[in-house]
Amino acid sequence: MAHTKVVILGGGFGGLNAAKALGNAKLDVWLIDQTNHHLFQPLLYQVASAALSPGDIAVPIREILSNYENITVIMGEVVKIDKDAKVVVLRNGDHIGFEYLIIATGARHSYFGRDEWEALAPGLKTLNDALKIRERILISFEKAERCDSISEAKKYLNFVIIGGGPTGVEMAGAIAEIAYETMLKNFRRIDVTKTKIYLIEGSPHILPVYPERLSEKAKHYLERMGVQVITGKRVTDITSEGAKVENTFIPAHNIIWAAGNQASAVLQTLDVPLDRQGRVIVESDLSIPDHPHIFVIGDAACAMDEKGKPLPGLAPVAVQQGRYVAMLLRKRMAKSERPPFRYFDKGSMATIGKTKAIGVFGKIQFSGFFAWLAWCFVHVLYLIGFRNRFTVLSQWLFSYFTSRRGARLIYRSPIESEMTKK
Amino acid sequence: MAHTKVVILGGGFGGLNAAKALGNAKLDVWLIDQTNHHLFQPLLYQVASAALSPGDIAVPIREILSNYENITVIMGEVVKIDKDAKVVVLRNGDHIGFEYLIIATGARHSYFGRDEWEALAPGLKTLNDALKIRERILISFEKAERCDSISEAKKYLNFVIIGGGPTGVEMAGAIAEIAYETMLKNFRRIDVTKTKIYLIEGSPHILPVYPERLSEKAKHYLERMGVQVITGKRVTDITSEGAKVENTFIPAHNIIWAAGNQASAVLQTLDVPLDRQGRVIVESDLSIPDHPHIFVIGDAACAMDEKGKPLPGLAPVAVQQGRYVAMLLRKRMAKSERPPFRYFDKGSMATIGKTKAIGVFGKIQFSGFFAWLAWCFVHVLYLIGFRNRFTVLSQWLFSYFTSRRGARLIYRSPIESEMTKK
To answer: Closest-CA residue in chain A for B406?
Structure first.
């Protein structure tokens, strides 16, 4: 009965896939996560923009793993990893020992040392983040409708998105749809088409990891939707009244942060070398130096590709790393026998609004409506569970034809408490 | 352009139906609600029990009314009604004047003077309430799984529901399903079939407004599902450790309040006679004494039927009252011309678990599986919007065949903060 104990920290793409690949192995596997669900993060912006419900993109981890009797799921926050004592410590003081450890704790946003910006410009990593952003966007329109003058309403109808990566581009497109389509006939006192959406990117192009031609396409799509794309400029300040972009101040009550990432804080307790983003610099087998029984995968790891370039923080990287480590453990491979991890790049895609996307598959680049259809197909395919696939697909079909959004709800904070704060 | 101004307070069944019936009339209609959505309250317990998502049973009020150009929707909390100055005051200080006023502000739970019980035994009226209860139920199982001993885990696996009306019965049935079906293969350290569910009703029968034969049926259904039904006994104390039912103490960390109602507090600012539940005692045309231009409807009103008995707090009563008042206003009827409001009773139903219900239609009583099918049909029929009908129906079909629940999510509060509080 006493099998070797493997502890996995985190039930995201990396941790969950490691667990699944260890299902029914002769190992005693424990998965620990702060929440009770696996989140399909690529569609999180659709929760933030009221198109999908949390239940559509999140599934209880213990339900996904319920058929593997060797896996125990524990909900808890790990605050310390003691690599020499081979134990992790939870916030409530519980100690959980391990023989093998797979760290897949992911990343949070980074405000580049300006932590006071977090309350003013929330980022998008968890369901809670998404619902906070959704509520802020919806409350802005409600506040605008209550204003007595157009000039007063204006600041509630300005939206600033900081960071022109996939999340920033997707949010900008979604807000444009909300303002110019969904809300069109919903207000009497304000003109929602006066909404202004600014997307700010510090580098010369949005979606900078894509080929320049596709970045330009994406910019063109966004501009046609009504988004003002500002590239090559940095946000220098954020206040409760708006954002300063170099010398220009944009008054806005709705600022969304989609700029930087910082790996999870618990990695600092490991006492191993971290990169600038706080990620653990792992060896070619994803283990940490001198501790071949401890692995770090996904956004928590800085792993190199064949050319010595760090692998990107994408779901497929985490998935493949999770499966790779599980294979090493199933085969009980000693450090010296382990083949190096190799990432197989299946390509990447980003969507802009309801009908456009861009994509790269090896040397093939494509964009437009068919790229968007491919994007829909791939995302529904990778969702976990038949029910979620079915629900998401039907919500999309519904939105496509009606421009309505299925989860336009405000219920967490009363508008009045927000109003008095201005 | 300056039409007569009608202000409606509340977008529940009463207020929303009044507004719809005034759509495109030559009246300037304003609807004010604290939230941005109309909530289909009869299915709220399904959100609390993780079967449906908030978006499935709630629709933005301004979307429902978007085609009526004479209706302005304002999100805000009314704190004072000045019946002589003909003005309502919002929490932020805004004054909104009216010529006619329809008050449909509903009810909250009442703890019979024991307000300290609210934090320990939350009630179920809003989406926020439902999500709080959902999270508490799910976290209980998570906490139990973390316990080192069975005796420690036990208190997390005891559920107490206070109040044997429709909400209490529905919640008890839903929790039984969660414990004995949904969670069955999900835990490794605890045995979820050890879960105990207590339903406490002070009067001799649960569902006391139904004929005794049906109440007994409902009790039988619940007991077969594993619920312990305790009737004729009152809860005398609630602590963080459990509930005292006369001389018996039931240790439990999950107590749900489904016992009493209290009409909305803003009615007290009207300065008119209220009944014991804080409802306004209205005249036969639903107006208040000496103010024929102010009406109170739904759960905020105490209106009498032909026999002088107060009408029950049911959705159909509120709907019919809303339409009745709208008719009076459309016809500009003077007080003396107004026919008294008459409630047309179409019957009522309550559901017990996933496959059973009871119902009364005039002299016809029925129960069992076909009653449950009828219950499903009626509830889907009365939902607003094609999308919601479609989603709810497909979620029910999915749950019926798999026993899974579509929204088993914990994301609002970390388990650790709860754990330390015990």
So the answer is: A55
